[in-house]
Amino acid sequence: MSLSRALDSLSGDRDTQAAIRRIVALFRDHAGECFSRTKVAANTGVSVELTACILRVLGEAFVLESSGEPPTYCFGGDRANEIEIDRFLRNSGRSAGAVRNNVEKFRNRYGR
User: What is the pTM of this model?
Assistant: First the structure.
């Protein structure tokens, strides 16, 4: 499986996508380092419930490796997943930037 399949099974709302972006960026920046779901939640500012859901899906999609009980999650640095993660972060960053620009233009045009 892959990151794209994992993303398809998660909610597409803006808050969930932002949470996914923060979690994936954390694991990409700390490849090989293992985190519990509470540590991921603390480092990203995402609720523990949403973090647990996202981590479970990423683990089932083999984007992250999970082990133990309670599970700890690691990103092994798989090159194919790394490319997909970089593409996801780049595209989601552009999308968030476009939304900010559109909101800014609207506020400039019609006032706050």
Answer: 0.75
